[in-house]
Design a protein that fits this description.
Blueprint (H helix, E strand, L loop, with lengths): L2 H16 L2 H18 L16 E6 L8 E6 L8 E6 L2 E4 L3 E7 L7 E7 L6 E3 L4 E7 L5 E8 L10 E8 L4 E4 L4 E4 L2 E3 L5 E7 L5 E8 L2 E8 L4 E7 L2 E5 L5 E6 L9 E6 L5 E3 L11 E2 L4 E6 L10 E6 L7 E4 L2 E7 L1
Parallel strand pairs: 12-17
Antiparallel strand pairs: 1-2, 1-26, 2-3, 4-5, 5-6, 6-7, 8-9, 9-10, 10-11, 12-13, 14-15, 15-16, 16-17, 18-19, 19-20, 20-21, 22-23, 23-24, 24-25
């Protein structure tokens, strides 16, 4: 063991004994920087070469100086060289003209931020964000942004969690908290105190969206209307929906009878009501994205000590194939067609 390594180990032991949490974080970050410096660089191309092409935008998860930055690969070659931007995000989503980024400002007291970057505009627009980032989506035309965060302070969450989901109209900056919408369940308007909403996905008509509605210890797929400010429950055991490009299917994660925190991906045919649970032996805790009308992509942690190096997987939406890795060392994919 080198002298530097022995010194770092001694400092960590002393800090743990003294309860020096903040200083310990600094030491851990120092170790991460050393690992990043030693990591091999991935093949890369310029952002300019991809920003006008069909592409997959994602959070770069390759350990190194670009970890956490927004990156992209050609839609025609997902395993090819990536272009990495200078923007760091925990969650990212993109359209052909806009990028929604949820991230942290760092420092001793972490603060969270949401920004929308529009091509042709000099500086990003900041959106209100309360709590830890969880989900991010833009409407297909880039007119609306949806953010979901985990928050604390609600009286009913002593043993659970609470979310805030806000849809922002980017033309005027107005925001709509989904807790203010009228919730219709089994034909009746309800207003449960423990209601939570998360994971918005937008339809192409500029008004309809789908979202998870949770209350009474049950999660529901709900359809929303921005103009009517309503949410209507449709189906139980469905979380983090994602609408297919042609608008005919919704994919989501579902728990069924498994333990809490263990989900599989399912796809619902909106016309027939037929649900297909997709193959795969690992829990998927992500809001899936559609690669096209026939395939889905989502993020999963890496193996063992490489859990932070997440990968993006692909699977057939009709359940006819096993999932496989599509993009190594990536997270939070968004397909820009």
């Amino acid at each position: 063991m080198s002298a530097r390594a022995r010194l770092v180990a001694l400092v960590v032991v002393c800090l743990l004994a003294l309860g020096g949490t903040a200083a310990y974080v600094l030491v851990a970050r120092d170790g991460q920087r050393e690992a990043a410096a030693a990591a091999p660089a991935l093949p890369a191309v310029s952002v300019a070469s991809l920003q006008d092409e069909p592409r997959i935008v994602f959070r770069n998860a390759a350990i190194g100086p670009d970890y956490g930055k927004v990156a992209m690969v050609p839609l025609s070659d997902p395993g090819g060289p990536r272009a990495v931007t200078g923007q760091s995000c925990d969650r990212v989503f993109a359209t052909s003209t806009r990028t929604l980024c949820l991230g942290s400002d760092g420092g001793a007291g972490t603060t969270w931020r949401a920004t929308v970057t529009t091509r042709g505009e000099a500086s990003p627009r900041r959106l209100p964000l309360t709590g830890t980032p969880s989900r991010a989506r833009l409407s297909r035309d880039g007119s609306h942004a949806a953010t979901t965060t985990f928050v604390a302070g609600d009286s009913y969450t002593a043993t659970g969690f609470s979310t805030r989901t806000v849809i922002t109209t980017l033309a005027d900056g107005s925001g709509s908290d989904l807790e203010d919408f009228r919730l219709v369940h089994r034909g009746r308007t309800v207003r449960p105190a423990d209601r939570n909403f998360w994971g918005v996905t937008f339809a192409a008509d500029g008004d309809t969206f789908y979202v998870t509605a949770s209350f009474g210890k049950q999660n529901w797929l709900a359809r929303g209307s921005l103009s009517r400010r309503t949410l209507t429950t449709l189906r139980a055991d469905a979380e983090c929906p994602s609408l297919s490009p042609d608008g005919t299917h919704v994919a989501y994660k579902k728990r069924q009878d498994r333990r809490a925190g263990d989900w599989r991906v399912a796809v619902l045919d909106l016309a027939s009501g037929r649900e297909t649970v997709l193959p795969g032996g690992r829990s998927v805790d992500d809001q899936v994205e559609w690669l096209d009308d026939r395939q889905l992509v989502y993020g999963l942690p890496g193996d063992g000590s490489r859990a932070a190096e997440t990968n993006v997987w692909v699977v057939a939406a009709d359940g006819t194939s096993q999932p496989r890795v599509l993009i190594e060392k990536a997270w939070s994919p968004a397909v820009v067609r």
